[in-house]
Amino acid sequence: MTISRIGTPEQLRDPNYLPPLWSAVPLGIQHVLAMFVANVTPAIIVAGAAGFGFGSNSADFPEMLYLIQMSMLFAGVATLFQTVTIGRVGAALPIVQGTSFAFIPIMIPLVAGKGVDGLAALFTGVLIGGLFHAALGTVIGRIRFALPPLVTGLVVLMIGLALVKVGIEYAAGGVPLKAQGSDAYGSWASWSAALVVIVVTLGLKFFARGMLSISAVLVGIAAGYVYCLLTGKLPVGAITGSWSQAAAFALPMPFKYGWEISFAAIIGFCLMAFVSAVETVGDVSGITKGGAGREATDREIEGATYADGFGTAVAGVFGGLPNTSFSQNVGLIAMTGVMSRHVVTIGAVFLILCGLVPKIGGLIRTIPIEVLGGGVIVMFGMVVAAGISMLSDVIWNRRNMVIFAVALSVGLGLQLEAMGTAPGGVDALQHLPETLRVLGASGILPAALIAIVLNLVLPQELAAEATEEVSGGLSGHGAGLRDR
Prior knowledge:
This protein is mainly alpha-helical. Helices cover 68% and strands 1% of the residues. It is built from 23 helices and two strands. The chain has a two-stranded antiparallel sheet. Helix 20 runs antiparallel to helix 22 (444-457). The model has no long low-confidence stretch (mean pLDDT 83).
């Protein structure tokens, strides 16, 4: 299809323009395909960490399907908040919402090894954190000064660094096999499936065009899936069994997992809401610049933040994970040049329909964990790259180098120390209350807090002799580190 057949340049820059349905429908589904795998992956990771995911042979198989189902359903609902709007909730822009990777390092410690019993505190935290996130919409414009690229870039980088270990564990065969000390963990059969996904994904991303390039991760996972079928790693009986066990239609259940107050969960979700809110502000600005060639208005930024929060809160009531705007769809708008919010509304309706059909979740659940590992290695690596990209906007003077160095050293150090501690063993934070220990072990929140505080209290220029000693004489050297 050509742009001229869809509409005039003025129409394509108008969020309220509805292209002809023959073009609007495939464009809307394209938005869903671009985010589909990334949207359901956090639910699979959380279920696996809790103990009813891949390789667990758990009797709680339906719960895995339910989490996947809710990921699709409430990504669609949250997207409708953005595109259709309800009062001040929503930006009336083509913003695609989906399950956020940013919260995974907070969620994994909350549910690790607890099975379904760990979900009550998790979803209570999602609900309260979502309401707090929505409240940020009233002040988002006034607190942006405390979250410059130095802080947000560091946080996104830390999120990516916390996630890359998950990708490798999945590609090698999954945490259950690792815990069992199985010889199958890290075998060629596991790695080959992950490598097929990575090779196909990179090949399409760099050498294909159009829809194939945009959906490279999705096609790569499909290729890995077929590879596992051909090699016998995925028996056909597993697919038919999962399909037959899943219902053809099911509605969400409010407070399905109960209600449990966990201060670690509430504090963690509320603090990470700042990160998600700033990410959404950036995505809104990217959409208006890339699609309409203008800056985002205060009303659009506030409405997008409200929709972010309320979408997350509603998801938490029914067993869905936190939602945020998806950056890959921002790039898709810039590429297609179609700014219509109605196109994204069509995609949202498609997501909701998928979420009401558990059989779709049943098929997704049969994806071998190694295949998913190949996909998330690419996706989580892109999170790290996104953080580095945000940090490229930082003026790397001596002051900012010191802030970054201290925050990264403490945050990453706590994270790695916690990862290396055996269950029940002593760690560096063992004398803290349980809530603070869980939050500190993530590494992300300590790093963000240190960066925010130091950025607010340190003078704009530090003494040269002090920073030269701290940086070992490297401050200000190199193309990317010069004072600007």
